[in-house]
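Marked as duplicate of an earlier ticket. Keeping the data here for the record.
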Amino acid sequence: MDNASHLGVVLDLSPKQWHLAAQPSNPHPITLVASLSHLLAFLNAHIACKDENSLALFGALPGKSVMLYSSTMPVNEEEIQPADANTYRPFKVMDSTIMKHIVSEVEALGEPEVEEPIGFVGALTKAMCYINRVTNGSTSSTSRNDDLATLPDPRILVISVSPDQSSSYIPVMNLIFSAQKLKVTIDVCKIFGGESVFLQQAAHLTGGSYIDIDRPDAILQYLMMSFLPPPGLRQLISVPTQDKIDFRAACFCHKNIVDIGFVCSVCLSIFCQPVPVCSTCRTKFPIKTLQRLNASRPNAAPGSAGTPARSSTPARTATPAISANSLPRSTSINPAAVPRVVSNGSAPATSSPMQNGEPR
């Protein structure tokens, strides 16, 4: 609890999503300027908790990601406006630097006709790299006996207003594995938009908190009560947790979030439909196996291309009925080889185990 804490903040700066969040038709509209005032107060509180606490702020903008502020970066005092007697000078320097960089980056975007995908993965990757540099710098300058007293307690807070990007599933999962290895906690504060499947998984797998804010105009209260305590203190206080977690994955072929997935038994690639050859490891699967998997798909349309005709069997049946023309007469159906039907909030199902493209 006496260790220093490093906080990396990933701020979603999508102009389109913030414009939608500020619409008067929303139950509790909030603008980017108003949310930044809450965020700056939270960052000041983090720095004030302990002198050794460090901070790094990264912005996720359309098509790119940038570092907006770091507690170790040099600051040009001449560019900072003079503070009044009621303002703490370090807080004034930090607030002015962050606002100046945000304004310059947003103005540089202009007004494009089509907004590029948000650079969320890049911002999260830079936050992880910064934590890795801070951690390695601490271990190289101290002895092993002093590691527990010098290493910062790293965590990342994601301020999100954009929906999930299905193409970012693999990079996000790699970031989750890296965070687990570095023991980095990822917290998520969802201000606007629908539930984020990938961020839910990131918070759950790293021991963080995922909070979908009901009142965006009271974001400061959520930040102070839920995300200000470092991971070392969360064992002693009650931190909000997730009631339901969506473990759906995105297929490797079309980058769509799927409820039912067919997993390659060699490289564990996920596909939304059976494929004759795995696009990742180039493993070939037998025709009989493909026919059996196609027949087990609950939403397969009768007579569609590459899908055998099926009778109208209820979805709760363990083994779907298959017409006589779908498989050779000598082929028997093994119920254990039929993929499981996955509902929302469950892990993706796997196909029958295979080795070198042949059923075991």
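See parent ticket for discussion. The mean pLDDT is 77.
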